[in-house]
Design goal:
- This protein has 104 residues and is mainly alpha-helical.
- It has helices spanning 9-22, 24-43, 50-85, 90-102.
- The chain has one domain (3-102).
- 80% of the residues lie in helices and 0% in strands.
- The longest helix has 36 residues, at 50-85.
- The protein is elongated.
Length: 104
């Protein structure tokens, strides 16, 4: 097993969390947008018109996709780049596996 995969997930998670913190200015507005969209969808649950609910669901999906893109970009710029600089090419396989899950 490659060194960075040997129960080193806490180290990678710490690096990812630092990345998220560094990217907070870009992620925070998306987080607020996501919260508002989810709240709107919950408010619609009683006797709401189906098309209104679908519009809110679409807003939630857009907010999640926007957040995911920003998070993936931050991960590529930091965690993946750092692993590649250290010679850990296996991080590419990990990224491919995650992208395959995300694209289902």
């Amino acid at each position: 097993m490659p060194p960075f995969q040997q129960n080193n997930t806490s180290g990678r998670r710490a690096a990812a969390n630092a990345t998220v913190a560094d990217s907070a200015g870009r992620i925070a507005p998306r987080d607020t947008r996501l919260e508002a969209a989810v709240l709107g969808a919950l408010m619609l649950e009683k006797d709401a018109y189906c098309m209104d609910i679908m519009i809110q669901v679409s807003a939630v999906n857009a907010a999640i996709n926007s957040f995911s893109k920003e998070l993936l970009g931050a991960h590529l710029r930091t965690c993946v780049a750092e692993n590649l600089r250290q010679g850990n090419d296996e991080v590419i396989d990990e990224l491919v596996n995650v992208l395959q899950k995300l694209m289902k």
